[in-house]
Design brief:
366 residues, alpha+beta, Porin, 60s Ribosomal Protein L30, Chain: A, eight-stranded antiparallel β-barrel, four-stranded mixed β-sheet, 4 helices, 12 strands
């Protein structure tokens, strides 16, 4: 029920923005005058957190709302597109009395798109939203600007924040003021005087520039990759230029003497490996079990296999990794890290190791 109320309030705000657009759209300066210029601004924010966000472990300690102030810096990349970085400090209040309030903040990087190069815009991006702890959310919303002159404008904006890992849905609105630095006022266009002549004029055919539909610098007749993204670097054929990047992950888990039980302190590292495997679903992993040189070779082979199997079990049962992507091999004492006959060397050698490496292509940016 609370989420529905939040959505209704956001819908009401965005409807108000749309109605306002029809009344004040004429005050928009020429969008081209802002291209290539930075702006700064101040804003106030009101946020309705997801009702599943809690201040304590008590299920009745959910947040009611938050409010605060912040600042922003933006850059007009083109007549239709802006990029904006903003930071907002928030005070968060609990839904029910008896539970503590909290501090929070929002650090967002977003793109603004003006479909008609006018006052109305769409906004989308990423927000490191700190409510009890920092978690990344995607944002999407709608806004409207009212220009008071050729450099300054007030704006109102409504957004949804959709948290990526815990599926929280938060809703916010904000009102602010921005000022463009370096923007030039549009020069008045002189109306040429009408010239009357009795001399016949020669008809001049207009010169048409070659088309470049995706604005990548390569004309359509030579572009072998139409519709490349505007920010991508392209070659002479108009195709995106890629570079290769390598992502690596290493897992190292140590064990007590004569044990194959995984200690809780290593679960965080195992989860990092599980997250890597989820991000790159076409990879597989060989988990290697090892022992110190103490004990018989046959026994060490057996317990090293048990240690490797224990890691596989945690990845499958605790973190839902497909077991078909995993294999376990026990090497016993065959691959010692430190051959010395000391307690430190033996502790170092009682381990499980796993390494995975992925090479991926990444588009170069202009």
């Amino acid at each position: 029920m609370k989420k529905t109320t939040h959505i209704n309030k956001l819908t009401l705000l965005l409807s108000t923005v749309l109605l306002t657009t029809t009344s004040y759209a004429d005050n928009q300066p020429n969008a081209e005058q802002f291209v290539g210029n930075f702006y700064g601004g101040l804003h106030g924010m009101y946020i309705k957190p997801d009702n599943e966000r809690l201040t304590t472990a008590d299920p009745n300690s959910d947040f009611d709302h938050g409010s605060g102030f912040g600042a922003e810096v933006g850059y007009r990349y083109s007549a239709t597109t802006e990029f904006r970085f903003s930071r907002t400090e928030l005070n968060l209040a609990s839904q029910n009395t008896g539970f503590p309030s909290a501090k929070g903040d929002s650090t967002a990087f977003e793109a603004l798109y003006f479909p008609n190069e006018k006052n109305l815009y769409l906004v989308a991006g990423l927000d490191a939203l700190d409510i009890i702890k920092t978690q990344t959310s995607t944002t999407f919303g709608l806004g409207y600007r009212y220009y008071v002159n050729d450099r300054a404008a007030f704006y109102v904006e409504g957004k949804g924040h959709f948290q990526l890992s815990n599926y929280y849905n938060d809703y916010s609105s904000r009102i602010g003021f921005i000022y463009f630095f370096g923007a030039k006022s549009a020069a008045p266009v002189a109306t040429p005087a009408k010239i009357v002549s009795t001399i016949a004029t020669e008809k001049v055919e207009p010169v048409t520039a070659p088309l470049d539909s995706d604005n990548d610098g390569v004309i359509n007749s030579k572009d072998q990759c139409p519709e490349t993204p505007a920010l991508n670097k392209v070659d002479e054929n108009g195709c995106t230029v890629f570079t290769e990047e390598t992502a690596r992950m290493v897992l190292l888990v140590n064990f007590d003497n004569n044990k194959s039980i995984v200690k809780p302190e290593f679960f965080t590292e195992i989860k990092r490996m599980a997250d890597f495997l989820e991000k790159y679903p076409h990879t597989s992993l060989v988990i290697e079990g090892h022992t110190s040189s103490q004990g018989s070779a046959a026994y060490n082979k057996k317990i090293s296999q048990q240690r490797a199997d224990a890691i596989v079990a945690i990845l499958v049962e605790e973190f839902n990794v497909d077991g078909g992507r995993l294999s376990a091999v026990g090497y016993g004492e065959e691959r010692l890290l430190d051959p010395a006959n000391t307690a430190e060397a033996h502790a170092k050698n009682r381990r499980v190791e796993a390494k995975v490496e992925v090479t991926k292509k990444v588009a170069e940016k202009r």
